[in-house]
## 1
Amino acid sequence: MDNSSSKKPLENLFFSSVLVIALGFLIFFVWQLFSSGPLGQAVEFGRLGDSYYSVGDFQRAEEMYLQSLEQFQSIEDSAGMAKQYGNLGVLYANRNEWQRAEQMYIKSLENFQASGNRKGIANQLSNLGTLYVLGNALPRAEQMFLKSLEVYQTLGNQQEVAKQYINLGNLYYARQEWQGSVQMYLKTLEIHQALGLQQNVADHYSKLGNLYFQLGDMQRAEAMLLKSLEQNTVLKRQPEIALHSSNLGKLYMKRGELKAAEKLFLNSLEIHQALDNQAEMASNYKNLGAIYAAYPDWQRAEEMFLKNLEINQALGKQAEMADQYTNLGQIYLSQNNWQSAEKVLLKSLEINQALDRKAILANQYDHLGKLYYTLGNWQQAEPMLHKSLEMNRALGHKQDMANQYGNLGHLYGKRGDKQQAKENFLKSFELFNELGHPNTQRVQRFLEALQ
């Protein structure tokens, strides 16, 4: 017996009931919205805008915010208008509509000023600062952040004060005003320590460590990075532990403390392997390759660079692939493995040509030119060295130009072309002399030997 026919009336009845209930809720919502007056409508439209924004439906969010704004305008509610102008500013900024975002933030700021809402004033000043940073208008951004900082300081809002110090620190960092950046980060650190915000404290130790590293203050950099590592270890933040282990490894490698650096890179690698973070694994393989090449342990260095290359091939990272081909080329050159060196250096050259990495291309032509020179292949060496010279001339790299003129001088000397050898050594001499470089005397001896 077919029971389906006996179920249909129940299904239809259930569907009809649901439809009636849904229509009832819709009618009730519409009635409530339009019977609540302009203020209620403004609030409800704003709430709907927030809901649409939270799920990424910016078009509907914009429509709701504009309707909310219209209702607030009709009752001259400055606080409500300020809020919706602010919401629209954030929305437009997320859509990269910078000019519209700026207009909305300014209108929001004016309305917060009219309603005397100092927190709102400080927030919009900060938003404008961030907007100007994105537009690379750094003096205006600094002005906004400083004004926002001043308001938050009068309000005693320490967390927001810290945020403005961070904004200013990042801005000074972008302008390469290192000392100003350090001062802002130290003030942020002090506040976060007082508030007991341990993750923030750890992050700022790291920020300061990296900044000191850039400034060449290795002692302070080490102290900050060790504190960050210690703090993150207590907090069991595995990605951060791996990151700061790697940063410390780079510091020790720069100081020539290779064993300490190796240990830290291996620790970082182990964590990233557990997290299956391929990009960071590749970075650690590269760092370890550099360590082993410095020992030198060519076999392990080659193994690390090949592992890096394999990951970057899978990730499709062309520039990183080119760099590893170059690193492998240097290993093979050190082992007098000319054929393998030529093969990987040509692969690196091909990728860098496609990416138009001019400064790196100049070095690639130099490597290949020296390789062919070593093999006595003058015909292939000459155009490579000339290409490196032309690249460095275009880049304005005078010292590298001087080196290439010197290399060409040696090449022509080996070929027995004393005139061209003399001309190139003379150009090399003039550039080194202009730069006040100690190679000036060395090139002078080459010139004297040609007399």
Note: The first helix runs from residue 4 to 35.
## 2
Amino acid sequence: MYRIRIPLVAGFLVTAATVAPLLTQAPASAIDTPASQNLTTGVAVSAIWPGTSRSMTDTVLVRATAKKQVYNPFTRRFETFTVPSSASNVQLTITMPLSFSNLSISPANGFVCPGSAQIERTLVVSCAGNIPSTGKAVAVTITTTGGPDEARYPFSSVVDPSNRFPEYNEADNAATCNVSYSEAVLGQLTGTGCERG
């Protein structure tokens, strides 16, 4: 009996060692790959008010994410996760009132804003740059002394305006803020993607 049990035990060990990797290893095609990207933008608003030294600052933010399919060896299925992503040559269009006075436009993090134009009582500024692998960056900061205290100042930002990037959500590429000095100070923000700075 002792001689009979040895092949059985050895056979079992060989079988387990052979089967275990098959249960945990992904197929050859199961690798981590970005399924698609998505770009979004936001505007963070802050203000100093009241007084003669008042100012309003609009900080334009850009973000990039990607959906990745990762193989789960336990369920033997692909699972989708949203993760930060980098993006190169990201285009950005910013629109603000012509009534903004003492305007200061300060690109950041490698973004450049070489072009501007006056269109229908607005100032349109074009910027471009890269989003790092952290998935977010401040593209440009715009500071103004503006006009009357209680006037609201519409400000908008659109990322990838020409739809150069194929995205899994093309409906969230714009951010708008429409606030006065006092509303910006109190954090009473109106708009989509409008954040407190």
Note: The chain has one domain: 27-196.
## 3
Amino acid sequence: MTDGEINELATRILRDRLNQFGFAQVRVKSELDFDGTPIIRVIARYENGRVPTDKLIDSLDDIRTELIQRGEDRFVFLDSEYPGQATEGDDDEEE
């Protein structure tokens, strides 16, 4: 699946599950992990509050389950960003 397709899927799931915690948007990046294995990194941005760990785990499980059903076998990482927190892509955007 493309990052765009995964973004749509993750946005739908996270909006349904985490909207009450200030969910705002998702960024998806295909990457390689430490040993060169392809992974999917889903970065969820929140406007306020913190998300309980059990809600994040359930959301990640839902994303992974739906991706597997669609034939996607890469491992998924779910990262969170909150207001005032430096984002992973900040340096890249300045270049």
Note: Helices lie at 3-18, 53-69, 90-94.
